[in-house]
């Protein structure tokens, strides 16, 4: 693939090629070479930056790895989720053996065990799973820019000790991703761009997952969070209506 890109043949200067080549290099420990590929992608106008490499992007949206909810219109909605975090946690724990929890399916795991239970996806409710998590579903359903986010999801995410999630980027810059900590042992952390943070139970972390991010679980018990995606606050109503689902 490196040789193919170097030819500059028609059709070769494509973000997908640069993204997958850089990803393969990172996964084999060739981080400097990966960085060179991403820098070239930025130079070619394929990526916004070496860290922000989404392929389905809208120009002009504010771009930063980490967000304070108070920078968004969603602060009160996130406070409401935090207020009910115990109910949300108990609902999630009651579902731990349910077949609705599916293994991560995007080949993002280097090691370990990581499963997810979708409640909303592509702006639509997952009816079966919502019946099993009615309180959580109702709370999210009241947040229009989360429940109706066609380029996002709402889901429980459970990760077991020994899990490492490869550095990766989300597909679009059209959403902001929130994580509500439900069960958070020590030694579990997430890096977004060049800053690493840890979850706290009952508290929200918010970030733009079009930036490179990576997760390590070096603790000794499960980590459980509620993930809720929101439309990027800079999108207009007409943009939200016209954007295709992802």
UniProtKB/TrEMBL annotation:
<dbReference type="InterPro" id="IPR027443">
    <property type="entry name" value="IPNS-like_sf"/>
</dbReference>
<dbReference type="GO" id="GO:0005783">
    <property type="term" value="C:endoplasmic reticulum"/>
</dbReference>
<dbReference type="Pfam" id="PF05118">
    <property type="entry name" value="Asp_Arg_Hydrox"/>
</dbReference>
<dbReference type="InterPro" id="IPR039038">
    <property type="entry name" value="ASPH"/>
</dbReference>
<comment type="similarity">
    <text>Belongs to the aspartyl/asparaginyl beta-hydroxylase family.</text>
</comment>
<protein>
    <submittedName>
        <fullName>Putative aspartyl beta-hydroxylase</fullName>
    </submittedName>
</protein>
<dbReference type="InterPro" id="IPR007803">
    <property type="entry name" value="Asp/Arg/Pro-Hydrxlase"/>
</dbReference>
<feature type="domain" description="Aspartyl/asparaginy/proline hydroxylase">
    <location>
        <begin position="82"/>
        <end position="233"/>
    </location>
</feature>
<dbReference type="GO" id="GO:0062101">
    <property type="term" value="F:peptidyl-aspartic acid 3-dioxygenase activity"/>
</dbReference>
